[in-house]
Specification:
By secondary structure, the protein is mainly α. The protein has 2 domains: about 1-30; about 35-90. Helix content is about 90%, strand content about 0%. The longest helix has about 55 residues, at about 35-90. The model has no long low-confidence stretch (mean pLDDT about 85). This is YiaA/B two helix domain protein. It comes from Jannaschia donghaensis. Keywords: Membrane, Transmembrane, Transmembrane helix.
Length: about 90
């Protein structure tokens, strides 16, 4: 398995975990008769908002990592070019 297949597998398990938690939450809210409907709605909205927040946190951390990697690649290419220019100038 290459890295792309590993990522797909991890994403699949995470997605399955999120779906399972939503299903279990829905069942527990449906089966709890002593909790008023307004409280159940509040809990449901809170869980959805928490999910959205977590997705945004992960996205922003991933974007920050990508930008750091991109900056490092640019710096490495610049350093490589400087070394190449220095070596060709010394040889001439």
């Amino acid at each position: 398995m290459d890295r792309n297949d590993d990522n797909r597998l991890i994403i699949f398990f995470n997605f399955a975990g999120v779906v399972a938690s939503y299903v279990l939450l829905a069942i527990s809210l449906y089966k709890s008769p002593e909790v008023p409907l307004s409280t159940k709605g509040f809990w449901g909205i809170a869980v959805l908002m928490l999910t959205i927040s977590l997705v945004n946190v992960v996205k922003y951390r991933f974007d920050a990592r990508l930008s750091t990697d991109r900056i490092q690649r640019i710096e490495e290419a610049r350093n490589e070019r400087l070394l190449e220019d220095y070596v060709t100038d010394k040889a001439a």
